[in-house]
């Protein structure tokens, strides 16, 4: 491949440019430059995707501002009476700083290292998912046991499981590439792995995280070349499993019925309480919003406004324009991740490509579910908005995953310039 970044002007072009500059410089209006020294310097090529970095930073900073806006009134509630007005803002800022520092370290790690440790990281995530279920080890909040207290932050193993399943599924498909047409040799072991993770997550319970993890695993299998008939068979099994879980769980059934008719008085004061107030927030925002900090729904009407329903606060304060910008930013980010993945696969780096595309499914799928819940398109589900909602482990693992994708892009560029990844 020819390196076009170091090509110099042809002699004829050089002479014409110099003569023109000499003619213009005779009157003293323009100094003659040393074109030989300028043209001998190679064109500078950026070594990473600056656009992706700026979009991610914009989402992180907007999330920081909106978390502060959504949580500033929480100390007025008896539940948070001992908290300062800036409590959630300062903790989110700490999580953001820790996440960015960690991402700067992760981006230095070659993808070959992640490929080697992928199975061990998956095993570690399973161990943590088991630990969180042990009484007096895992921390319970609102009836769910999903966190491990680490002092400086509460760590959520399900977030690590999303990254672990992405790396493990990509590594698995590379190892099983020769037998990907055989169901029991290619698909069944991966299905068992996802099933074990699902059982542990449903025991917390955390059905939302299981949905995201199942989507990541299925997408990587499909993108890795698994037979289409097998893919649709897996999809049918998963859909049947979700229907069975909902039908056998009374409180999940009630949530579905409340979603179908949220404005019924019983539902509006019960299972659909969050949904109705989220829709009211979007309605109040209209086109340009009520203004930053002017939300009324965050004043103890909309529960979890700084976590699961942050988009509703954005809709009320920044209006349709603000929500549209957030949706477009996520769309652009997911599209860019898939482009990086396709580029890596074209360079015969299948593991790296599947990882980038798996992270794209993770970010896009979780953002879609969160936005759908906030807008009443999907039943209420406890999933945060990636990169934006309050939550230390969520922000940390999002930044780590995107740093790995940035490393994929860096290695792609090095290979396309004739170097080594």
UniProtKB/TrEMBL annotation:
InterPro entries: FtsW, FtsW/RodA
Ribosomal protein as UniProt keyword: no
Reactions that this protein is recorded to catalyse: [GlcNAc-(1->4)-Mur2Ac(oyl-L-Ala-gamma-D-Glu-L-Lys-D-Ala-D-Ala)](n)-di-trans,octa-cis-undecaprenyl diphosphate + beta-D-GlcNAc-(1->4)-Mur2Ac(oyl-L-Ala-gamma-D-Glu-L-Lys-D-Ala-D-Ala)-di-trans,octa-cis-undecaprenyl diphosphate = [GlcNAc-(1->4)-Mur2Ac(oyl-L-Ala-gamma-D-Glu-L-Lys-D-Ala-D-Ala)](n+1)-di-trans,octa-cis-undecaprenyl diphosphate + di-trans,octa-cis-undecaprenyl diphosphate + H(+)
Superkingdom, taxonomy of origin: Bacteria
Assigned GO CC terms: cell division site; plasma membrane
This protein's UniProt keywords: Cell cycle, Cell division, Cell inner membrane, Cell membrane, Cell shape, Cell wall biogenesis/degradation, Glycosyltransferase, Membrane, Peptidoglycan synthesis, Transferase, Transmembrane, Transmembrane helix
A Pfam family recorded for this sequence: FTSW_RODA_SPOVE
Gene Ontology process terms (BP): cell wall organization; FtsZ-dependent cytokinesis; peptidoglycan biosynthetic process; regulation of cell shape
UniProt-recorded Gene Ontology molecular function terms: lipid-linked peptidoglycan transporter activity; peptidoglycan glycosyltransferase activity
Intracellular or extracellular location(s): Cell inner membrane; Cell membrane
Enzyme class, UniProt record, top EC level: transferase
Membrane-topology annotation of the record: Multi-pass membrane protein
Pathway terms, separated by semicolons: Cell wall biogenesis; peptidoglycan biosynthesis
EC number(s) stated in the UniProt entry for this protein: 2.4.99.28
Function: Peptidoglycan polymerase that is essential for cell division.
HAMAP family for this protein: PGT_FtsW_proteobact (MF_00913)
Homology family: Belongs to the SEDS family. FtsW subfamily.
Protein name: Probable peptidoglycan glycosyltransferase FtsW
Species assigned in the record: Aquabacterium soli
